[in-house]
Each structure stands twice: as structure tokens, then as C-alpha cells.
Specification:
Elements (H helix, E strand, L loop, with lengths): L11 H7 L3 H13 L4 H16 L1 E10 L2 E9 L24 E3 L5 H8 L3 E3 L16 H6 L6 E7 L5 E11 L5 E2 L3 H45 L4 H17 L4 H10 L12 H4 L7 H8 L1 H9 L5 H12 L20 H16 L10 H10 L7 H8 L2 H10 L4
Antiparallel strand pairs: 1-2, 1-6, 2-3, 4-5, 5-6, 6-7
Helix pairs in contact: 2-3, 2-6, 3-6, 7-8, 7-13, 7-16, 8-12, 11-12, 12-13, 13-14
The chain binds fe (ii) ion (2 copies).
Length: about 400
């Protein structure tokens, strides 16, 4: 019996799939899978390509997370939200399932595949033999108004047999546009694709672990420098979030914005090299002491120099130049305008604004309104006018970040 869910609502998949050349699609899929990128994007494109290869209307991907499976993404060309594949991951209706955890057991097909490492192919999920060692969980069909019929679920299995995730595709489109069973060949293709995807997934996981451990080390180093100055880690958290928000506002791209978020906490790391007598002096500094204090920029750049990655090079530029001023009256080099690296011009506004709005032993916090006025007033003298404009246009975000990171 056919149903409204037999064919894609927009006819897109059927047409595209009939024209798909398996070999070309496989090559494209391998190229897609080996490009380094975030895990969600990687698995999203795996699902898209795998569905085309086996003519599946819908599908989903899960990743093993501790002792459970975490839902990563789903596609469904037959749903009323047929265009969701074109939308950014975070805006799709299926995004409501993000973070949903599925037990690795026999209560769902994906859970069973993850538990056993065995693929499963079912012609009609509502006619599964009650004696089968797994169950089909119909709750997703009910939730999204879908009717799953045929299904293949394969493990994303690393060499050495560890299952890293599960790829599941639903409702194969037959030649006449009806839902048909998947073939043994479909299952074999998906198993091969799953093996390639597992390698890429493991690489992506290792890359993210590495980034997390870098970030952790960086934040600890930066916090150590802040503590010497009587600061808490909250200053660098707020300041780096301001930097990220400004970078996004200025259209510098997600990657660049993420990089400045990680690089900017190290701006004052050079304070580790300033003698206590100067750094912690309660009264005003003499001219000589001020000169010594200004050396924290050069010392910081020295600590960070020679890094073999762009993140550290950016951190070095920020440490070196975050006290330069647009009009050339800053330090340590007195450089002017766009000679000052962009990341340092952004860090300058973020750092000064946070210093203004935070209480210090020798002063109380200045109000938000007054601090924004001071950023406006420093436009084209102290600060890069474009950066200052971007910052003041972000008032709501700045307030939210300020409130999020306050000492308990
Ligand atoms: Fe500084
Ligand atoms: Fe600072």
C-alpha cells in the first residue's frame, strides 16, 4: 500500500538519484570524507552522499558517546520540511533532536547495530519478527509524521572493530517512485562507506581532542598571568568573547572568529615576566617603572614566538600589539592605523572596555553607558573606527557576555 510518504515531497531526491552515477558518487564521497572539517559537517555530508548512493528518502547518523549513541543529524526529503537539507545544521527542524542520546541496546535498531557491530536490513520495520533481537522505535515516526518502511543501518566501524557510530537510511525509492526494500548491494555499499567514514570520524575526533587540550593549556597559562596581576580568569573570558563577537560582526568568518577567541586570552601573558615590585605596586608607577611595565607586550610576544601554527602566530601578534593605538600614540612600537594587526586592534577595544567596566582595587567599575561612550570617543584616535563601530553595535551581546562571566 502506498502512502503520502512514499515519494519525496519535492521530487528532488527521486530525480537526483535516478541520475546518480554510483562510481562518480563514491569518488565524490571519498573526497568529501577526507577533507578536514568539524564532525557535524563531516557526518552531514556522509549522510547526504550515502542516501544518494542507495536512493534513500531519509536517514540519520549517530556517534558513540560514552555508553550511549548521540544523535548527530537527520535528513528527510519526504517531510513537510523537505528543504531542511539546504538549511544550516542548527536551523533544521531535526535540530530539536541534537544531543538526544540513545541507549546502546536492543531497544532500537541503531542501538543494536552499535552494540553488536552487525548491519541490519529490514524490508518493513512495522513487520519485524517479534522474535528478532532488536526493536524498531516508532516514536520518531510519530513525532515527525513520517512512515518508515525499509531500512538499512550499518556501523561506522574503525579497523580493529571499535564501533564509532551508526549510519541509518530509510525508505529506498524504487524505479516507479514507490518505497522499495534496500538490496544486499545497498547494504554492502553502505558498509564500505561506513568504514571510510569511520577513519575520517576518528581523525576528526582526534583533531577536536587536540584543539580542546590546546585550549585548556592556553587558558591555564593565560589565567596564571592574570592571577599575578590580581585578576581572575573572568577578565580573559569576557575579553576573548568580546573579540569573537566583534570578529563575527565584522564578517571575518567563523574560523577566524573562533581563532581570536582562543588566541586573545594570551594577550597579557608577558606579565609573567614583570617583577612583582612593579606589577603589584599599589601607588602610581614612576616613568621608569611604566616603561618596564610596557615591556609585557614584548615579553608576551617573545613567550609566544616560533609557534608552528597560525593560532600561536595570531596570539603573538595580539600580545605584541594590543596596546598600540590607531593614531600611533600607543606602545611598544607606536605604529599607526592598519599597520597594527587587525586582531590586535580588536583585542584593544575588548581589553579596554572590560578594564573600564570591571572594578579594580584602585577604582570602581564605570557604567556601561559611559564605557560605550568612551569607546565612541576613542574612535579613530585610540581605536580602529571600524572595530569601535562594530563593538558599540553589539551592546546587547556585550552585556550578555559581561553578565555570563562574573565572579561567584
Ligand atoms: Fe596588556
Ligand atoms: Fe587584559
Amino acid at each position: 500500500m502506498s502512502s503520502a510518504y512514499d515519494a519525496p515531497a519535492n521530487g528532488r531526491v527521486g530525480a537526483a538519484l535516478v541520475a546518480t552515477d554510483d562510481f562518480a558518487a563514491l569518488l565524490r564521497l571519498c573526497a568529501d570524507l577526507t577533507a578536514p572539517r568539524p564532525i557535524e559537517e563531516l557526518l552531514d555530508s556522509l549522510l547526504e552522499d550515502a542516501r544518494k548512493l542507495v536512493r534513500a528518502v531519509a536517514g540519520s547518523v549517530y556517534v558513540v558517546y560514552g555508553d550511549r549513541l548521540r544523535f548527530i543529524c537527520a535528513h528527510n526529503d519526504a517531510s513537510p520540511h523537505a528543504r531542511e537539507v539546504a538549511a544550516p545544521l542548527s536551523e533544521r527542524p531535526w535540530a530539536t533532536l541534537r544531543g538526544v542520546m540513545v541507549p546502546i541496546d536492543s531497544q532500537s535498531v541503531a542501538g543494536y547495530v552499535a552494540a553488536t557491530g552487525q548491519p541490519i536490513r529490514i524490508d518493513d520495520v512495522y513487520a519485524v519478527d517479534p522474535a528478532a533481537p532488536y526493536r524498531f522505535d516508532p516514536s520518531y515516526d510519530r513525532k515527525f509524521g513520517f512512515r518508515t518502511r525499509s531500512m538499512v543501518a550499518v556501523p561506522l566501524r574503525e579497523q580493529g572493530n571499535r564501533v564509532l557510530g551508526v549510519l541509518q537510511v530509510l525508505n529506498r525509492i524504487g524505479d516507479a517512485g514507490q518505497v522499495a526494500p534496500f538490496t544486499a548491494r545497498d547494504q554492502q555499499i553502505l558498509l564500505s562507506v561506513g568504514a571510510v567514514a569511520a577513519v575520517s570520524l576518528r581523525n576528526a575526533q582526534l583533531r577536536e581532542e587536540l584543539i580542546r587540550s590546546h585550549l585548556d593549556t592556553i587558558l591555564r597559562l593565560a589565567t596564571a598571568a592574570e592571577f599575578r596581576d590580581g585578576e581572575t580568569g573572568d577578565h580573559i573570558r569576557r575579553m576573548s568573547c568580546y573579540c569573537e563577537a566583534v570578529a563575527r560582526k565584522m564578517g571575518l568568518g567563523r574560523e577566524w572568529a573562533r581563532q581570536i577567541l582562543v588566541a586573545s586570552p594570551m594577550h597579557d601573558v608577558g606579565k609573567l615576566g614583570i617583577p612583582d615590585a612593579v606589577l603589584m605596586k599599589p601607588g602610581p608607577l614612576t616613568a621608569e617603572e611604566r616603561k618596564l611595565m610596557q615591556q609585557h607586550t614584548v615579553i608576551g610576544a617573545h613567550i609566544l614566538e616560533g609557534g608552528d601554527n597560525e593560532l600561536l602566530r595570531q596570539a603573538q601578534r595580539i600580545a605584541h600589539s594590543h596596546h598600540e593605538r590607531w593614531d600611533g600614540s600607543g606602545y611598544p612600537d607606536g605604529i599607526v592605523g592598519t599597520d597594527i594587526p587587525l586582531e590586535a586592534r580588536i583585542a584593544a577595544v575588548a581589553d579596554v572596555f572590560d578594564a573600564l567596566t570591571s572594578p579594580r582595587v584602585y577604582k570602581s567599575a564605570i557604567s556601561f553607558e559611559k564605557s560605550f561612550d568612551m569607546v565612541r570617543a576613542g574612535r579613530a584616535s585610540h581605536f580602529d573606527p571600524d572595530v569601535a563601530d562594530a563593538f558599540v553595535s553589539l551592546e546587547e551581546d556585550v552585556r550578555a557576555i559581561h553578565e555570563a562571566y562574573q565572579p561567584v
